[in-house]
């Protein structure tokens, strides 16, 4: 319990520091929000001064950051400069698409990445070489290019999946997001499969596995309790890192398939210096990294009790 509490406090500190860094980067970038608001029109200095006063742009940097942080703690992410809408409402409309996309990609990475790695690690010959070749190709193909290939084959040529949009309803959304999720998960699936294969082979040839087989323990039992279980420690770390990075990489797939997720919202917000939107999405990304890393640590403790004993001291 104390370990979880310490990690939650550390996550809160990381959120504050990361939001400060993002706010500082946006503040130092060329251009200004009021220039976007006037849309290139020539306005008087009084109008510019009124705009800056309305959006508190004349306040010192640390004052603006502190005011924003206090509002976030109260559940208020501010108002978008570009859309004149509440940032919370904008995120609520777009988060379901991104979360569904990331969840589907995470399932692909977990099941196909680990599954193919286990198959290649426990089998020699053609199957092993096929998985190695497939993982090399999957890792080498950029996400955007993979999206275009999948779209061309399965949407345009075969017509199995829709080309654009995120769909409405549960099943329609899953149907629309299948190809984007595959494109997003492809490089990570290849990496996880290769690392899982290596970990399985190392554990398969380890001393304790060889001794267990020599004592007459059935091979299937050795595989489950010794080989696969022990190899999941490094694999779970890699899976967690890649799943945490899906949100940051989803904007490429969202742009290719014209999805209404937070990735495209982030790109537009950065271009327009929409501070409130950028800050909110940055907080979401950092929180996702922190939560997934916490889950990976808890998974470590369930896989290897020795990890739990060390962290409770």
Automatic annotation (TrEMBL):
Instruction: Supply the CDD domains for this chain.
Output: TM_PBP2
Per UniProt, residues of the ABC transmembrane type-1 domain are: 95-296
* Protein's UniProt keywords contain Repeat: no
Q: Name one Pfam family in it.
A: BPD_transp_1
Major location (coarse): membrane
Keywords, comma-separated and alphabetical: Cell membrane, Membrane, Signal, Transmembrane, Transmembrane helix, Transport
What is this protein's record name? ABC transporter permease
What family, per the record? Belongs to the binding-protein-dependent transport system permease family.
Which first-to-last residue range defines the signal peptide? 1-24
From the record, give the transmembrane residue ranges. Answer: 99-119, 131-154, 174-195, 233-257, 277-303
Topology relative to the lipid bilayer, per the entry, is:
Multi-pass membrane protein
Q: Where in the cell is it found?
A: Cell membrane
Q: Which organism is it from?
A: Leifsonia kafniensis
Entry keyword annotation includes Transport: yes
């Amino acid at each position: 319990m104390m370990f979880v509490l310490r990690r939650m406090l550390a996550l809160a500190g990381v959120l504050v520091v990361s939001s400060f860094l993002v706010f500082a980067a946006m503040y130092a970038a060329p251009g200004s929000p009021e220039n976007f608001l006037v849309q290139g029109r020539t306005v008087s200095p009084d109008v510019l001064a009124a705009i800056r006063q309305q959006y508190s742009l004349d306040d010192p940097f640390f004052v603006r950051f502190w005011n924003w942080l206090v509002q976030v703690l109260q559940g208020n992410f501010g108002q978008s400069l570009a859309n004149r809408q509440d940032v919370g409402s904008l995120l609520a409309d777009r988060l379901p698409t991104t979360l569904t996309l990331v969840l589907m990609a995470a399932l692909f990475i977990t099941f196909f990445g680990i599954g193919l790695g286990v198959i290649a690690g426990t089998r020699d010959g053609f199957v092993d070489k096929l998985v190695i070749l497939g993982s090399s190709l999957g890792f080498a193909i950029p996400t955007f290019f993979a999206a275009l290939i999948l779209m061309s084959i399965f949407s345009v040529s075969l017509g199995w999946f829709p080309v654009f949009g995120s769909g409405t309803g549960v099943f329609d959304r899953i149907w629309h997001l299948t190809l984007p999720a595959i494109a997003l998960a492809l490089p990570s699936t290849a990496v996880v499969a290769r690392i899982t294969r290596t970990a399985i082979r190392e554990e398969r040839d380890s001393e304790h596995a060889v001794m267990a087989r020599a004592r007459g323990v059935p091979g299937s039992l050795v595989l489950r309790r010794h080989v696969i279980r022990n190899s999941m420690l490094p694999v779970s770390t890699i899976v967690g890192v890649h799943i945490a990075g899906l949100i940051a990489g989803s904007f490429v797939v969202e742009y290719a398939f014209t999805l209404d997720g937070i990735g495209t919202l982030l790109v537009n917000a950065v271009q327009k210096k929409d501070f409130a939107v950028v800050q909110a999405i940055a907080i979401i990304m950092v929180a996702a990294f922190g939560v997934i890393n916490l889950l990976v640590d808890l998974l470590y403790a369930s896989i290897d009790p020795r990890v739990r004993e060390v962290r409770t001291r």
